[in-house]
């Protein structure tokens, strides 16, 4: 099983964290998916797309069909703008469960549907809270949506993300 990290050149806030990850040791070129380059590092796959992420439905299924690798988690790297217009770091599941069948979508996805939330959301929220506290930031909460369709656990990370590797 692999974790699929998804970045897009259509979003500079996505490419920045992706480039930082790829600058770490252990990355190697991976398979292409519909002309998109990918990279591998142990059980992590990072794919760089050209389209906006909200139009990339079923990436997990498409990856599995193209590579034969089972996708356990999907992590999207992208930019969000808070209603306060202040930079924000967000972690959230994807979907539009608040819409009914037939209602108009502002982006991709399916009305009334949400991906199963990733069990890592809780630990990542606690880590985010600790980082915010250490920088004297004020926690704010805002409801947002991400409309991409996926079959498996998903987590969406916005803005800057630093991963720590214990080995």
From TrEMBL:
<keyword id="KW-0479">Metal-binding</keyword>
<dbReference type="Pfam" id="PF04414">
    <property type="entry name" value="tRNA_deacylase"/>
</dbReference>
<dbReference type="InterPro" id="IPR007508">
    <property type="entry name" value="DtdA"/>
</dbReference>
<keyword id="KW-0378">Hydrolase</keyword>
<dbReference type="GO" id="GO:0051499">
    <property type="term" value="F:D-aminoacyl-tRNA deacylase activity"/>
</dbReference>
<keyword id="KW-0862">Zinc</keyword>
<protein>
    <recommendedName>
        <fullName>D-aminoacyl-tRNA deacylase</fullName>
    </recommendedName>
</protein>
<dbReference type="GO" id="GO:0046872">
    <property type="term" value="F:metal ion binding"/>
</dbReference>
């Amino acid at each position: 099983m692999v974790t699929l990290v998804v970045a897009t050149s259509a979003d500079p806030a996505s490419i920045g964290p992706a480039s930082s990850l790829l600058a770490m040791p252990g990355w190697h070129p991976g398979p292409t998916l519909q002309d998109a380059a990918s990279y591998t590092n142990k059980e992590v796959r990072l794919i760089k797309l050209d389209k906006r992420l909200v139009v990339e439905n079923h990436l997990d299924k498409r990856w599995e069909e193209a590579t034969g690798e089972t996708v356990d988690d999907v992590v999207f790297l992208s930019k969000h703008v808070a209603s306060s217009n202040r930079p924000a770091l967000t972690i959230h599941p994807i979907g539009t469960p608040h819409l009914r069948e037939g209602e108009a979508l502002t982006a991709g996805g399916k009305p009334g549907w949400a991906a199963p939330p990733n069990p890592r959301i809780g630990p990542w929220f606690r880590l985010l809270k600790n980082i915010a506290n250490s920088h004297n930031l004020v926690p704010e909460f805002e409801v947002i949506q991400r409309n991409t369709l996926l079959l498996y656990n998903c987590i969406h990370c916005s803005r800057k993300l630093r991963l720590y590797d214990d080995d």
